[in-house]
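Notes, Module 5: Reading structure tokens.

Key idea: the token line is not a picture. It is a compressed description, and you learn to read it the same way you learned to read a sequence, by spotting repeated patterns. We will look at two proteins. The first is printed below with its tokens.
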Amino acid sequence: MAAPYAGAGAEGCNRETGPVLSESSTGDVKRPQFGTRFLTDPRQVFQHNAWDNVEWTEEQEAAAKKKVLENNQPLPPEKQEEYDTRANEYWNDFYTIHENRFFKDRHWLFTEFPELAPQRDLNHECHPEVSCTDDNEQDSLDPQQSGEIPTLSHEDADFPGFSATYRILEVGCGVGNTVFPILKTNNDPGLFVYCCDFSSTAVELVKTNPEYDTGRCFAFVHDLSDVEANYPIPDGTLDVIVLIFVLSALHPNKMQESISRLVRLLKPGGVLLLRDYGRYDMAQLRFKKGRCLSDNFYVRGDGTRVYFFTQDELHEIFSDAGLEKVQNLVDRRLQVNRGKQLTMYRVWIQCKYRKALVQLPEMQS
């Protein structure tokens, strides 16, 4: 279901991208972490393909708000219901058309989310921009160091990846642009990766990929918004859950329950990683009239939907699900088309939230 692009109603599509790559003097590719390339001289804007942490002027912010308000007339309820009930059909059509040609593999994830990398050092180091929880300096994100790993019963022993020592689940895996880089890069023999998507077409494309290894990976169809549907994984068994441009595809009314159900799968100390669309991203500002479903929630021309978050909204969702904040930052990126001399302002939100090592009684239900 993960399908980040500039949105229907816009001319053409823009792929979601990660941190820009630079080359060292030896020719080796270095992958800088978020927030390392700053535009200090506007005259140099076309010297690179992208700039980090770009501050908006008050005029830009006001113009973005005005643009959103102009296109804020919701579609009739019956039309909104159609997009909701046919969501599966629209996503299957998307992957039938694009197959595995639309997105590039997200190798940048290992820089932004070292929890996914081999020989992981999960001791959290705070970004200057990030307000961290008080215990981040002494606690690791690796629940195996805490001695709090749940004991699986004999009845639980019949699920894929039972013998694994480190389990990752990607929700909304699409055609595997996150899963396959993890499998190729992370050589941890105890690793097992689960991946699911709303679209059966996408999951089938993952399973038919030559790199799909049933000994290290299990792909399955699942509707994140269906909180009554069972996962093929027992509660309390996952180390990491990954949501890359996925939560935004759900109806806003279904987000909280969906995350609360998902969080039950995490071990104590397990972490949820998210990257998604932020408020006033270029994709939101490009929507034409007649595409709004509700505040900051839109339908693209192909019938798929997208929501644009604020940091506070995501913090409330994750906190209400019983998670503790490790990271919640806005990635304001200025992307540049040097050939056409165009500038494009992207706004993404990146989050890491952790399940407490000791769950309060009201959070355990």
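Here is the second protein, with the sequence above and the tokens below, as before.
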Amino acid sequence: MTGWTSKRTLAILFVSATVGISLVAASVQRIWENETRAGASESFWEADLFNLPAEVPFPGGGWLNRIATPETEYMTPDGKSFSSVYAALLDNQPLSNPSRNLNAYINSIIIPNRWGSQLSDMFGLVWAHYVLCYIRNLIFGMIVYYGVAGIFHYFCYVHPSAQDTFENRGRIRPSNDIMWDQIKLASASLILYVLLPVVDEYLVESGWTQAYFTVEEIGGWSSYIFYMVLYFSVVEIGIYWMHRTLHTNKWMYKHIHVLHHKYNKPETLTPWASLAFHPLDGILQASPYVFVLYIVPCHYLTHFLLLFFTAVWATYIHDAMDANLDPIMGSKYHTVHHTHYIYNYGQVFTFCDRIWGTYREPDGPTGISNPGKQRVRPDSVRGSIKKVP
């Protein structure tokens, strides 16, 4: 398998995951709900044993049974007793708020009851739930960043095809110092960046958004697909304009976005640069996933997974390779953005750049010197360009 082909295959897999994640998330949830109907005596989850209501939304009856076991009893500082700390965090009403119930379930996978109890004693039940969400998001964020970037690192620099990508074409490899700088910056940024999903979870759980929990709530699969496509399209437009504003607003560029653009040559772009930014930069660019939820409905589990998928996608578009996936905003287009600054602001697709006049094709293969071309950077005045020697 050639270098180009292996990386192109990876890119196609991650593009497919955008739709696949949403469909699988909704499908798994739907299957689980069907399997946890009371009275289904042959259900894999044996929901009839738990004396549950007619329908139990994901994560199902097994989770409710787990938090009801007396071995994990939790006593609040004011003397109120619950079967477990997670039952206390849900106020013994897990089915009244499915989104909060789901978040508590995911938290319990990462954080055991003992730690949850200690945090609840420290912060109180209201705040402890979101502290647990923050810790979970930070752990997942680290796993996604190091795991996905590590996979891309192997295919870009370790796999035998890397010889053809770099040395055989006279292309400069990124240095270990550059990668280490990006890893340190990304690791520090993640500490604050993962606060955005916590805010998002609070807004959804409080009922302030258009998020819905089951496919039936929105009117079936056709409505689910329609609103998912609409949501993702509006998010793409929002990210385009947020990213463009981070360039055209001179204060935001100087104090927030310029840190990410110190990686402005192909040999300084690597998969590790995906989250190497000012934390406010990442929060602003991902914020359309949150505020669009106020106006466009989206399945909650799909929305939740898409937030983490952005980190996966960011890894791909920063690997400085030349996979051609039009009209997908592949890495070759984002490399142009880093070297020329004023083009290709889109996240996943190129349609926004094509509509608003900022689309640009690469001048040639990435990293191959072309003395006839010059890089450009933005001037402090909107829309003006200065040549860089």
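Summary for the second protein:
- Strands lie at 74-75, 81-82, 211-212, 298-299, 375-378, 385-388.
- The first strand starts at residue 74 and ends at 75.
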